[in-house]
Design a protein that fits this description.
With 253 residues, this protein is α+β, with helices and mostly antiparallel strands. 21% of the residues lie in helices and 39% in strands. It has six helices and 15 strands.
């Protein structure tokens, strides 16, 4: 196999690499990466506070609504039910990660308890300057699509964010050059949600982010923010309800 690859022209090598990734993108994490965190949620939560989920997780919005349980550990499942209205923010749950290249594999389910259930998951570095709340890059699953988005050099870059807000506040369209820039920071592909359990992998390798579901590559995109050298947190942002059964975080480098 190695000798065959060496004999292929560059274009063929690039194509071959894409095919290898597409066969099962999560395998890149399993074979190239080091497992640095695993949680199967086989315990009970301890109240409703910041660290109530246990095992190093923090619920960043928990203290806004101390009397409301937003994460219920039930039979090895983390059942997230966001108090979005009361907290004035979607449930935000994160765990330390710490890699340049790597990612996470999770099992998830939209339980069908609320209309329009969605899940945003990705990577944060609160130590980076010039980026709102350290938001780096995310995969976003809605009922009809999957989005990969670079926040670091897009909408969460403070200079872009402040300038963009002026137009939003004035209810004016964005300047064409800003609109074109922000569109380059993301890719949106169709995907139909259901209420079954699925395996999802979200990984970054250099300036590329890839997302797979049940071993099938759903979306990939190149953007400079994906190459941020330290993904300190792996996070979930949940506006309504999502169930998480298992989380594994891998570091490749």
């Amino acid at each position: 196999m190695t000798s065959l690859l060496r004999s292929l022209p560059l274009v063929a090598l690039i194509f071959t690499s894409s095919v290898l990734h597409a066969a099962d993108p999560a395998d890149w994490l399993r074979t190239k990466g080091q497992l640095i965190f695993h949680d199967s949620f086989d315990r009970e939560e301890d109240g409703t506070g910041l660290k109530a989920i246990g095992n190093g997780w923090e619920s960043a919005t928990a203290d806004r609504v101390p009397k409301i349980k937003q994460a219920d550990l039930d039979g090895g499942i983390m059942k997230i039910a966001s108090a979005t209205v009361e907290a004035k923010h979607a449930a935000h749950i994160h765990h330390d990660a710490g890699f340049t290249d790597g990612g996470a594999i999770i099992r998830f389910r939209f339980p069908g308890l609320n209309k329009g259930e969605s899940l945003q998951l990705g990577y944060v570095d609160r130590e980076v300057k010039g980026v709102h709340a350290g938001h780096l890059c995310y995969g976003i699953l809605s009922q009809s699509s999957v989005t990969l988005i670079d926040h670091k050099t897009g909408v969460m870059n403070l200079a872009i964010r402040d300038e963009r807000q002026k137009y939003l506040d004035a209810k004016k369209p964005l300047p064409p050059e800003m609109d074109a820039l922000l569109k380059k920071k993301q890719v949106i592909v169709p995907w139909k949600a259901d209420t079954e359990w699925h395996d999802l992998a979200l990984m970054t390798e250099g300036d590329e982010m890839r997302l797979s579901i049940d071993g099938k590559l759903i979306a990939s995109h190149h953007s400079e923010g994906f190459a941020h050298p330290m993904k300190r947190w792996f996070s979930f942002l949940v506006p309504s309800t999502v169930w998480i059964d298992d989380v594994k975080i891998y570091k490749v480098k």
